[in-house]
Amino acid sequence: MPGVWWFCKLCYMKVQLFIPCYIDQFYPKVGIATYELLQKLGCEVSYHANQTCCGQPMANAGFNEAAAACNNNFIQCFSAGHYIVCPSGSCTLHIKEHLTGTDTKNAANIRSAIFELTEFITDILKLTPSFASFPHKVGFHSSCHGQRGLGLSSMSELMMPSFSKPEALLKNIQHLELIYPARKDECCGFGGTFCITEEAVSVKMGKDRLQEHIDNGVTIITGNDMSCLMHLEGIILRNNYPLRVMHIAEILNQALN
C-alpha cells in the first residue's frame, strides 16, 4: 500500500511548537504543516498563543531593550520542560545562542531544549520515514544559519564527510527528484537586515542563486528556513521566474497524506 506505514516505530512525545513571527504573519500554512507533521510523527503538540518574535531582528540591529522584552516573553511561553520545535534554523539558532532573561535557569533549559524541525525528526525522534509520492523536480536551498550554525549539513569549505539532515528526509520521498545547484551552500543574499542595508548586493545574490535552479529545470525550491525562501520568492514574483517555493515541512507533510 502507498504511503507511510511505520507508526509502530513512533514514540509518544510532548512537543511545544514555536512558530516565528514572519511565518505566523506571512506563511501560516507553514506553521500548520509543521503542526500536522509533528502530530503524524507521534507527538502531542502544544502551541502557546502568547508567543511572538524571538527578538533576533532587534538584537541584530542593536535594540537590546526591545530584544530583552522578547526574551522574557519567550521564557514565559516556553518553560514547561518539554522539547521545543521550530521550522526555522535562523530563529532556532538565535534562541540557542542568545536567549537570556531574568529567569536564567529557564533560559538555560530552553536553549538546550529547542530544535529545528528536521534536526528534531532526525536526532530526537530518530526516525527514517518512508514517504508517499511527490512527483516534482525540487531544488534544495541550504540556509546559512541552519548549516553553519546548527550543523544541519556539511560545509563545502571544510574537509569533512558530506551529510545533510533535511536532504536525507527529502530523499526518502518517492518520485521526488532532488537536484542540487553547483554551489550547494552559497548564501541566497537575505541575511535579515542585510537585505535592507545592502539591497542591491542582496538581490544580485538571490538572482544568481535562482539562476542555478532555473538552469537545472526545477519547478520547486525548498529549504528549512522560510526567511530565505521569502527572499527568493520575492525575486521570483518580481521577475516572473518559472519557480515556486515550499518549506520542507509542507513537502514532508503533503507526502505523508
Describe the 3D structure.
There is one protein chain. The protein is an alpha/beta fold and 257 residues long. It has two domains: 13-124; 137-255, Rossmann fold. Helices cover 47% and strands 14% of the residues. The protein contains 13 helices and ten strands. It has helices at 21-26, 28-40, 56-60, 64-77, 89-98, 104-113, 117-124, 144-149, 165-170, 194-197, 199-215, 226-239, 248-256, and strands at residues 13-17, 43-46, 83-86, 114-116, 131-133, 137-140, 173-174, 177-179, 220-223, 244-247. The strands form three sheets. The chain has a four-stranded parallel beta sheet, with helices on both faces. α2 packs across α13 (248-256) and α11 packs across α12. It starts with 12 loop residues before the first strand and ends with a helix.
Biggest sheet character: 4 strands, parallel
- Indicate the CATH architecture of the largest domain: 3-Layer(aba) Sandwich
| CATH class bucket of the largest domain | Alpha Beta
As a percent range, the share of strand residues is 5-15%
* Share in helix: 40-55%
Q: In short, what is this structure?
A:
This protein is of the alpha/beta class.
SSE inventory with pairings:
Blueprint: E1 13-17, H1 21-26, H2 28-40, E2 43-46, H3 56-60, H4 64-77, E3 83-86, H5 89-98, H6 104-113, E4 114-116, H7 117-124, E5 131-133, E6 137-140, H8 144-149, H9 165-170, E7 173-174, E8 177-179, H10 194-197, H11 199-215, E9 220-223, H12 226-239, E10 244-247, H13 248-256
Helix pairs in contact: 2-13, 11-12
